[in-house]
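A quick aside before the break. I want you to see a complete sequence-to-structure record at least once, exactly as it would be stored in a machine-readable document. Don't worry about memorizing anything.
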Amino acid sequence: MEAKKVAEIATSAGEILLSNGAEAYRVEETIKKICSSYGFNGECISTSTGIFISISDQEGEFVTSVKRINLRRVDLYRVELINSFSRGLAENPLPYEEAKNKLREIYNAPNFSLGIRLLAAGLTAFSYAIFFNGGILDALVSLLISFGIYLLLEYISKIGSFQFLEYYLSGFIIGAVSLAIGSFFPQINKDNVITGAIIVLLPGVALTNGIKDLLYGDYVSGFAKLGEAILIIVAMSVGIVTALSIFMKWF
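That is the input. The structure line, written in tokens, reads:
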């Protein structure tokens, strides 16, 4: 197979990995493994927003590929599919068209339905509200708020906006609604409600991957992911503090 086609396969696989929450070292190792499966020596540098690939062919010529990643989310199912794909290539290198079709199937793999994701978000908020000494009523309110916040983020992400604004508004709504409900229903503790509701927003995967990248020596990608996680936490915290500062005198 031509080096250009191998670079295209490797770039597509790396794009799926990076856009779905994989660590930088995983992207680089997978791309090198794919190149090696076809008998080429490939080098890769992965950052949080892009992939740079260079492959040398038998004549010593180099093929370079660059791919910028604009949209990023967390979908470990697709990450696992690409891992299986790269391991399969090591044992049985697929023809170009077959490999591209396989990658297209992985890219278009169905997501969990909105109802399942809402249920997961709600149960997560409910569980953490209980875990941090909240009562059943606190947990139920956290569950309902997390439903609304998840739907809000789904809507805002589709129309496009600054990430800081998304999480600022989410934090503001959590703080305002928790304070209002806690004032009308004294048996509900607003602090426990806020604790449960914000769990859905916390960037746990980004924090973990950032630390793992740093431990593997990928400092650019590691600090970028940690910076993104800190930005989310700050935006959410500022939103909650703003809501509490504004509405505390009213309720």
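Two observations worth writing down. The first strand starts at residue 41 and ends at 46. The chain has two domains: 3-107, 114-247. We'll return to this after the break.
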